[in-house]
Amino acid sequence: MLKKIFFALLFTLFLSPQAFAASNQPTVKITSYKYLPTGQIYPFGSGSGTLISEDGLVVSNNHVIFNESEFKPHDVFGICITFAVKDDPECKYTAHLMANNRDLDLSLLKINEVDIFGEPVGNLNYLNYKHDVIPEEKTRVQVLGYPGSGGETITITQGQVSGVEKFNNALYYKTDSDIDFGNSGGTVVDSKGNYIGVPTFIRALAETVGYFLGIEDVRPWVDANLDKELIIHAAGQQRLERVLKRYYIANDTLSYETDFYPFYKVTLPEGWEFYQMSDVGIGAHEKQLASRLTFVTSVIYYQFEIGEGFLDELDNQLRHIRERFPDYKKEVVDFAGTEAWKVSYTGFNGLTTNYYIPYGYALLSLSYHIDPDQEEEETEKIEQLLSTFEFTQPAQKDPNLPDTITFEDPGFSITMSGDFKMQANKKPWPIYLISEATQHENYEGEMTINYRQVSKEDRDLSAEDRLDGVVQNIYGNTKVVFKNDNVVLDGLEGFLYTLEYEGDEFQQVRKVITIGLRDGDYELTIDYDDLSETFDANLGALRDILNSFDWHDDSLEKAGQYSFGSLGQQFSDVNHHRFASSIASLAEKEIVGGYGDGTFKPEREVSRAEALKMILESKNHLEKSKKLNQEVNFDEYRQSRTPNPFRDVSRKDWHLKYVKYAVQKGLLKGYPDKTFRPSQTVTLAEALKMIFVGYEIPVWEGETDPWTKKYIDKAYELGMLPRGLEDPNHNVSRAEIAFLIESVYLRAK
Predict the structure, then answer these.
(1) Residue 319 and residue 355 in one domain
(2) 339-343, 443-447, 576-580, 697-701: least confident range
(3) The pLDDT of residue 8
(4) CB–CB of 354/365 below 8 Å?
(5) Does residue 375 share a domain with residue 459?
(6) Which of 234, 266, 287 is the endpoint of a domain?
(7) CB atoms closer than 10 angstroms to residue 569
(8) Is residue 187 part of a domain?
(9) What's the CA gap between 275 and 294, in Å, rounded?
């Protein structure tokens, strides 16, 4: 950056003394938070704003307070106010949104009358936005804000107006003053201290050209929204106040004691500060700019007491560090009176140390990084910090999780089965994760529930189209083994699909099922990922869990209904078969069936009677799905008095109804000796001919030599033939006919 950053001295000299007679600076820092379904808040970003009234009205940008991915404002807002330019701002204030405008990129907030400790905020110093000063080209300006590149304190840059452009019928002034991310929504003043605009954006690929919206276009919008009611998110506000208070007190005392399990306390040395806090950990570092010394804690919660199996899995996950760093070292040590692992290795320009401390049902990790050029000094500081660490309550072996877990927003409950235990997500990230479940000593499997807004381009898609879009984007060694676009769980409708993919270990096969349920513009997804064998063994428990799903909205058209099919596990002998997905799909539609022993016998050659049934039932299912009232009741043809068309088909044969229908509709002719030969195997060419005739797919009517060529050509044209299935005289298996039929079925939809 070529521009110089000016702090207190320049700020005092450049602006008129009368502009800032009160104790606070009118430019504030704004942090926007999303309230999560788990009751936590997540900071989505920060920007700047300008106080325009003594009772706390703040003008900022819309994009500072707006969640573009969900197309709505964030829920709650923290405010930092600077009382001395050289000092860090005080971040013990909150605000509510009054109004926002996406076209002008403006927002209006109101700071609450009391801070997080309940103390009155009082009258605030502000800038007058009701004046008629309009900047001209070469007008000297200053930009005030809290850019990401400027540290924690307020940053002031200077430049001049270098032009003007018009967007959305509003004037935006160009300036060569440094405008960085975080400056958005801040303050632009002229040499006399007049508030003349709101920094808005930076021209891409033009670092030295920023834009601010002129105050003449800000003023009428603000005036039109002064009577708007505050948008209050009570639960989010309560949570934000708790988080800010905890953070503020910790930095004021340099001591922090958790109010969550595992309960512990830590005290920082002088010259340190806490820079992050959540319900799963803290982060602290030295305040001096040259230091990179950082201390971080984090908690992983398990649904059961952490034992040897859990630690074996942890050791397995650490193998990539062992393989990468030759001086990797793991020691069993005593930490705060508890047995722990101390893992250290040299990398990333220094010595990294991680402590892993199993404490009941929680695994606490502590991490720090030592600069090799200051190893002795930084080691002493870290050891001083570590010596203050203490657990304040005994370890708890059992988290006492209930079998049924309930959520308020979104409102639903779900009951565990098959030794699964579920707990609400306590981490702030990923923000869409609501809960996760595991089985005792099953360290490979996990079930999760997520809730997120559907992207704007996908909101109008049906479950069928959503599923098709997902499946089309699957690549690599992952394959779809089952899918269903007609899923209902207690009235919520959606889709599901099951994938099979390679695990981390050699020849390890895993499965994952994803169930997506639509709730307006949102989607609730249930995922279960595990080793293939364990996955299949747990399908009964998964069915019980899905049937327990209770959506707290009885007004839905299908409330109380459950429909999710077999979840892809109909037959015991199709796992890992390349046509498993096609078999599962047709079985789910009751187009194909298995044998009494639970097998499908995918490699058994298919007979003419079986092939005819599969083709006709699939075509009939297609007609039903289109709801055109063109489906066929094949039983009527069995009972009809039409003569038996073939001498080798008796009145007792199960396939009689299909044969009679096919003959009457001109789909089947048989052999010259008036036989159908129902038990005879079907070649690829014969199967394709039957499919094309049954689905009324036109094939070239000319003569070919051999006669099979035109059917093979048509199959190539439609992309129906998989690798290895090309010989027209090949006897088709049950799995292959399922693949061919599903290929046509999907194209005919």
Answers:
(1) yes
(2) 576-580
(3) 29
(4) yes
(5) no
(6) 234
(7) 23
(8) no
(9) 10
For residue 414, give the 3-state DSSP assignment: strand
Say if residue 433 is in the same domain as residue 544: yes
CATH of the domain at 123: 2.40.10.10
CATH code, domain with 367: 3.40.1000.10
**Residue 272 belongs to some domain of the structure:** yes
Average pLDDT over residues 600-624: 91
The structure tokens 């009205």 sit at 57
Residue 579 has φ and ψ, to the nearest 5°, of -105, 20
What Å distances lie between residue 127 and 25, 56, 57, 106, 696, CA to CA? Answer: 10, 11, 10, 17, 76
- Global pTM? 0.76
Q: Are residues 386 and 408 in the same domain?
A: no
- Polymer length in residues for the chain: 749
> Is it true that the peptide bond before 428 is cis, omega within 30 degrees of 0?
no
> Do residue 553 and residue 660 come from a single domain?
no
> Which residue, 341, 370, 391, sits at the end of a domain?
391
Alpha-carbon distance of 514 to 563, in angstroms, equals 15
Task: Judge whether 496 lies within some domain.
Answer: yes
**Side chain identity at residue 218, one-letter code:** V
Q: In the block, which residue shows the tokens 């002229």?
A: 190
Q: Which region among 13-17, 78-82, 567-571 has the lowest average model confidence (pLDDT)?
A: 13-17
Residue-wise burial string across 296-315, b where 16 or more C-beta atoms lie within 10 A, e elsewhere: bbbbbbbbbbbeeebeeebe
Please give the average per-residue pLDDT across 435-464, as a whole number. 92
**Virtual torsion, Cα 380, 385, 387, 391, nearest 10 deg:** -160
Q: How many helices (H) and strands (E) does the chain have?
A: 17, 35
Residue type at position 81: I
Helix (H, G, I), strand (E, B) or coil at 334: strand
State how far the Cα of 79 lies from the Cα of 237, in Å rounded to an integer. 12
Q: Taking residues 461-480, report their average pLDDT.
A: 85
SS3 category, 461: coil
What's the pLDDT at 20?
37
CA neighbor of 98 nearest in space, from 114, 109, 82: 109
Tell me: do 443 and 558 sit in the same domain: yes
Number of domains in the chain: 4
The rounded Cα 123 to chain-centroid distance in angstroms is 43
**pLDDT at residue 12, as a whole number:** 30
Q: Is residue 574 part of a domain?
A: no
Q: Are residues 354 and 430 in the same domain?
A: no
pLDDT of residue 297: 93
Q: Are both 551 and 695 inside the same structural domain?
A: no
Q: How far apart are CA 69 and CA 459, in angstroms?
A: 13
Half-sphere exposure (CA, 13 Å, Cβ side) for 510? Answer: 16
Closest by CA to 509, choosing from 544, 481, 542, is 481
Give the pLDDT score at 21.
35
Residue 480, SS3 per DSSP = strand
d(C-alpha 456, C-alpha 473), whole Å? 18
Q: What is the DSSP letter of 702?
A: S
Per-residue pLDDT tens digits for 585-597: 888 788 888 887 7
- d(CA 300, CA 338) in angstroms, rounded, equals 17
Q: At what angle do helices 608-626 and 734-748 cross, to 10 degrees?
A: 20
- C-alpha dist (Å) from residue 597 to 571, 579, 586, 677: 9, 20, 19, 27
Per the prediction, the chain carries an average pLDDT of 87
CA gap 146, 154 in Å, rounded? 5
Contact status, residue 172 vs residue 163, Cβ threshold 8 Å: no
697, exposed or middle or buried, with CB in 10 Å at 0-12, 13-18, 19+? middle
Predicted confidence (pLDDT) per residue in 169-222, tens digit: 888 777 776 666 666 788 888 888 888 888 886 554 445 567 788 888 889 999
Domain hosting residue 67, numbered range? 21-128+226-234
